[in-house]
Design brief:
The protein is an all-alpha fold and 71 residues long. It is built from 4 helices and no strands. Helix 1 (4-17) crosses helix 2 (34-48) and helix 1 (4-17) crosses helix 4.
């Protein structure tokens, strides 16, 4: 991760998936689904006070793209 936001988003994702992932991984390609995306949106809202649509998590090509939405 190259930013603090990327690091924190990655930590949230790794806690959800329970295995190490990289910032350039795709949420859906590592096994993400709409239920997990809803959970992540809630955690991101609590952590960063941002409102992201579930579709953003599902459509972002990389986890780093999700972090950029927050920054």
């Amino acid at each position: 991760p190259s930013t603090a936001t990327e690091k924190e988003v990655l930590e949230i994702m790794e806690n959800i998936f329970q295995f190490p992932i990289g910032i350039n991984h795709s949420f859906t390609l590592i096994g993400g689904n709409s239920l997990l995306a809803m959970h992540i949106v809630t955690l991101l809202k609590e952590k960063f006070s941002v409102e992201l649509p579930v579709s953003a998590i599902l459509s972002d090509a990389k986890i780093s793209d999700t972090a950029k939405r927050i920054d």
